C-alpha cells in the first residue's frame, strides 16, 4: 500500500489477516476460532491503512492468518507453526508434514519477507536509511492474566523511536508498556528484529490492546493518535541514520526461560496488577 509514499518509514502489518488458503480447510478451526487473537491481530489492518495514508508512508501487509505460518517469527522458531492457539489444538498444523510446511514457507513466508527486504533495499540504494514501524495488537487477558497496558512498545537496542513513542503516550495519560506485553530483548526473530535491528535501521514494534480497537471507529481513533505521535518523529531528518550504539546480543537460553516464565505467570494469573 502507498508504495510511493514520500515518508521513508515502512509500516509493517504482518498479522493483518485471518484468511486461510482454501486447500487447508480452515486448518480444522471454526470460523469463530479464526476471529480470535491467536489467528489475527484484531484492529491492526485498519490502523495501518489509516496511518499509511495520513503519514504518506508505504505499508506492507500479511495476507494470511498467523496460524498458517507466523510471519513475525524466525521460520525455525517453534511458534512459526503453532500446534495450539492458547491451548486450543490446530488440527491442520498437527497433521502437517515437512512437505506441507515447506510449501507454506515457499508460497507465503518467503514472498512476504523478500518483498520487505526489497523495499528496504530500494531505500538504501538511494542512500536513504528508512525507519520501520510494525503495528500489532494484544489480548487484554492472556490465559488468566489481565494486562493493564493500553499500548506497548517493543524494542531491542535502538530507542530513538521507542523512547519518543513511550513519552508521547505517557504524557497523554495512557498506561504504556516499555517492552510489554513482550520483551523484544529476549524474544527475537520478529519481522522488525530481522529486517530493522539486523540492518541497524531505526524501528519500533507497537502493540495496542485489542479490546480498545474492536471496531473500525476505534481503530481509526487509535490510528489518529499514532499519526499525531509519529508526525514529528518521522519529520526529523536526523532520525534516518544507522544505529551506532551498543548491540544487545541474543541469548537463546534466556529467551526460552523468559517465555516459559511468561506463560507460567499468565496461567497462574498472579500478574493482574
Describe the fold and architecture.
This protein has helices spanning 44-55, 91-94, 98-125, 160-171, 191-195, 216-235, 252-268; strands at residues 9-13, 59-61, 84-85, 88-89, 131-138, 141-142, 145-146, 151-154, 176-178, 203-209. With 273 residues, it is of the alpha/beta class. It has a single domain (9-268), classed as Aminopeptidase. Strands 2-1-5-10-8-9 form a six-stranded mixed β-sheet, with helices on both faces. Strands 3-4 form a two-stranded antiparallel sheet. A hairpin with a 2-residue loop joins β3 and β4 (88-89). α1 runs parallel beside α6. It is globular.
Provide a count of the helices: 7
CATH architecture: 3-Layer(aba) Sandwich
> Would you give the CATH topology?
Aminopeptidase
Label the overall shape: globular
